[in-house]
Design a protein that fits this description.
This protein is an alpha/beta fold. The protein has helices at 3-12, 21-32, 36-39, 48-58, 68-78, 85-100, 108-112, 117-134, 143-150, 160-164, and strands at 17-19, 64-66, 101-103, 137-140, 157-159. The chain is globular, with a radius of gyration of 15 Å.
Length: 166
């Protein structure tokens, strides 16, 4: 890894890392059924190598951090799968993912009053506020979120596309 990535891992390994919506969905689908990554429309833009890279990187952290907003989006995306697979993924989400993530909450009115809200929307504005206010590192493949985070002092953010190129 690069010096920057090593530093983020050193700083945040015990606290954990917040994984954005698309990447957390990739993690959920990949852990449920690796080959489903390629056929599910919400993850089809990723490769199996991307999943392996994601799994390797998040493995450096003691826990994954998420928000209710991210989990709602994940649930909505999983709901687009056909039965009975959808039901099995929801069970997996409940039994495996929700038990192993640390959920952080910010009130929507508070988030909507922040400057990133109009540019990022509720989900990613909450991520930006958590990262800045609580010193949480973020892993994202969303360029707008990444730029917002890295433009603010004291926020550690990793662009997944940089990991892909290693």
């Amino acid at each position: 890894m690069t010096d920057y990535l090593d530093l983020i891992v050193q700083r945040h390994a015990r606290q954990g890392i917040l994984v954005d919506t698309n990447l957390l969905l990739l993690l959920v689908i990949g852990q449920f059924e690796r080959e489903l990554i390629l056929s599910f429309k919400r993850t089809a833009s990723y490769s199996l190598e991307d999943y392996d890279t994601l799994l390797m990187f998040v493995g450096f952290f003691d826990k994954l951090i998420t928000t209710p907003n991210i989990l709602t989006e994940i649930s909505n995306f999983v709901g687009q799968l056909a039965d009975p697979k959808k039901l099995r993924v929801f069970e997996f989400l409940r039994d495996e993912i929700l038990l192993t993530t640390a959920e952080n909450y910010l009130d929507s009115n508070t988030v909507a009053a922040t400057s990133p809200f109009t540019a990022l929307g509720l989900t990613y504005a909450a991520v930006a506020e958590l990262a800045g206010g609580r010193g949480i590192a973020v892993l994202t493949d969303d360029l707008k979120l990444y730029r917002t985070l890295t433009s603010r002092d004291g926020i550690d953010a990793v662009n997944f596309n940089h990991l892909r190129n290693m």
